[in-house]
Amino acid sequence: MNFLDKLIHKDNHSILAVTHGKVLHIEKIPDHAFSNRLIGDGLAIEINSPHIYAPCTGTINSIASTRHAFTILLENGVEILVHIGLNTSKPNEHDFNYHVNVGDHITPDTHILTLSQQFLHSHQFKVITPIIILNSHEHPIKIMTTSSYTKKGKTLFTYK
C-alpha cells in the first residue's frame, strides 16, 4: 500500500474497485447520462472479470428487475449505483448470478454477483461498469484515482 492509499484509507469515505480493469473517468463514458453526470458523479471500470464485489460497506438497497444494476445504501445516507455495462437494460436474466439479496449487509469482501461467460464474450470482455454516487450533490467526490488500471479493492475515489 503506497502513501496515497494509506492517506485515503484513513478517510472512511472510500469507494473501492468492484473488480479489476481499466479505469475510465466519467467524461469518457460513452453514455450521455453518465458522462454528463445526470445520474451522479463517479468513475467507471472497463471490467474483464466475471466477478463483481462490493465497493464499500452498506446495505443492498435495490437490484434492477433486469439485474444489470444494483444500489447500495451506506449508513451515512450515501447511495452508490453499480451499473454493469452500457445498453444492458434488456439482458438475459441468466447473465447476472447474484449472491446477495435486497436488504443484505455487505462489506468490500462481499461477492455481489458473477457474470456469465456468454455475457462477457458478447461484450468482447470489455464491459464498462459505472460506479456512481447518486446523491453526489450532497456528497461530492474529493479524491479520484489517477491510475489507468485498478484491481479489486483499490480505492477509486473518496467523497465528503
From TrEMBL:
Molecular-function GO terms, alphabetical: kinase activity
Residues in the signal sequence: none
The protein's name: PTS EIIA type-1 domain-containing protein
Coiled coil (UniProt feature): none
InterPro entries: Dup_hybrid_motif, PTS_EIIA_1_perm, PTS_EIIA_component
GO terms for biological process, alphabetical: phosphoenolpyruvate-dependent sugar phosphotransferase system
Presence of the UniProt keyword Kinase in the record: yes
Keywords assigned by UniProt, alphabetized: Kinase, Phosphotransferase system, Sugar transport, Transferase, Transport
Subcellular location: Cytoplasm
Pfam family name, one: PTS_EIIA_1
GO cellular component, as recorded: cytoplasm
Positions of the PTS EIIA type-1 domain: 31-135
